[in-house]
UniProtKB/TrEMBL annotation, chains A, B:
Keywords: DNA-binding, Transcription, Transcription regulation. Gene3D superfamilies: Tetracycline Repressor, domain 2. The keyword DNA-binding applies. Transmembrane segments: none annotated. It comes from the Bacteria. This is AcrR family transcriptional regulator. Pfam families: TetR_C_33, TetR_N. One of its GO terms (molecular function) is DNA-binding transcription factor activity. PANTHER family: HTH-TYPE TRANSCRIPTIONAL REGULATOR BETI, HTH-TYPE TRANSCRIPTIONAL REGULATOR RUTR. Residues 39-58 bind DNA.
Length: 228, 228
DNA sequence: AAAAAATGTTGACATGCGCAACATGAGAAT
DNA sequence: ATTCTCATGTTGCGCATGTCAACATTTTTT
């Protein structure tokens, strides 16, 4: 007779949606502790299940972290689309994307690091497909803003422009990615100035790109690795 | 009488320089496995000492990793100074710095991630002082190249130029940092094209900076956090 | 030479990962 | 409806790790 609470309330043997519960707990712990080194057992405890229940949903810790990372990508993609929702000017849209991107990272460093920190990259195969999707959504947003004239002039999204567009995206992305991580690692700061910094760098970048968009060398991809 | 080998050879009770041996082993394991999740015990095994010997040199795993990271910063700084050794033109010097930086990261992703991945950032205090030093060496290199005219015109390293110079450095650093990590995470690639990509981005960046250097907002630092 | 400090070793404990065997309950097959 | 089956949850285990405490061996100081 396992009766924990004083009331007659009794948790059913089956949780109902343990998968989400575990991922949710992981997100919570991650954002509290800002540390990837929590234990699966801790998550199980939080979800109120036994220490091994999670293994019915995730082969191992790595797989759980991959799921968490995927949610992170979804969140980030959503923040970016939300931020552009009410904007028309391509320039404004691009700026909003930049802000949302950096902001997303700075507001939850541990999650951002999990997403981009190569907990997954290191080993064998590739990243979970959901990450590809989010990355592609994000890329689509950028392509749209750029081809609509965010760099001062429209650049139609045609084949002969791909290398130019990819060059612009790479410039943008690596600049924002770098800024985010430097902020997160407190190698520049303070991060309260995030918005201003983003603005400055973005502005400088746009001025630069307006004059000269670096063309991507042949054979280079921008975005998640091509499916084989 | 603990005699392990068949010969009369006997390792002395004291290792001699276990500190370096452990750090060395860590660097080796790190670059083999590309994974920060090796165990202290494994390092001890490699160094041929008992599983607890490392604790006489490092308070805990974190401290060991900090030491490894510090070596990483020294290596990177050295690669950059070496790369500029025989160059005079400020522009060439800057390009060489960029190549060396990205190359250093791509050639040992796990080390680079350890250095910048905030294994240290997360917790309480700051990073070990040696990292500050290396970061400042690197910054000095950049300041020198920039003030000598890497952006097309000399910008004397005076107080009224600090915000401009810091702006340029932030642009440069975050761009290279971002590119490095995107390459490392295989979100752009392939990394064999590293050199060309670096060149393209750098060129675009320089053109941009030549026209308009983003000024750093007041109250922002670039480089490791100011000592309190 | 004796005392103190540094460095290595052994053993122990708590915690975590992940396996295997078992328990429980929900839905399919009859 | 009853039974079978399978997904899901539980308990208990083996093994590895981080780290502490107690002890051993050198080296350094005094």
């Amino acid at each position: 007779m396992t009766q924990h609470s004083s009331t007659t309330e009794q948790r059913p043997y089956h949780h109902g949606d343990l998968h989400s519960a575990i991922v949710g707990a992981a997100l919570a712990v991650l954002s509290e502790s800002q540390n990837t080194e929590f234990s699966l057992r801790e998550l199980a405890r939080r979800a109120g299940v036994s220490h091994n229940a999670p293994y019915k949903h995730f082969a191992d810790k790595r797989e759980l972290l991959a799921a968490v990372s995927a949610v992170g990508f979804e969140l980030l993609a959503k923040q970016m689309t939300d931020a552009t929702k009410d904007l028309d000017s391509p320039h404004e849209r691009l700026a909003a994307i930049a802000r949302a991107y950096v902001c997303g990272g700075v507001n939850n460093p541990a999650l951002y690091r999990l997403m981009f920190g190569g907990y997954l990259t290191g080993q064998d195969d590739g990243r979970p497909p959901i990450e590809r999707t989010a990355a592609e959504d994000m890329k689509a947003l950028l392509v749209e803003a750029i081809s609509n004239g965010a760099l001062g002039r429209p650049i139609p999204n045609t084949t002969e422009n791909t290398r130019e567009i990819d060059g612009a995206i790479l410039t943008f992305w690596s600049q924002m990615h770098g800024l985010t991580l430097l902020l997160v690692d407190r190698l520049v700061g303070p991060s309260e100035k995030m918005a201003e910094l983003t603005e400055s760098l973005l502005q400088g970048m746009l001025d630069g790109l307006a004059n000269c968009i670096p063309a991507i060398p042949a054979g280079v991809w921008v975005g998640p690795p091509l499916a084989k």
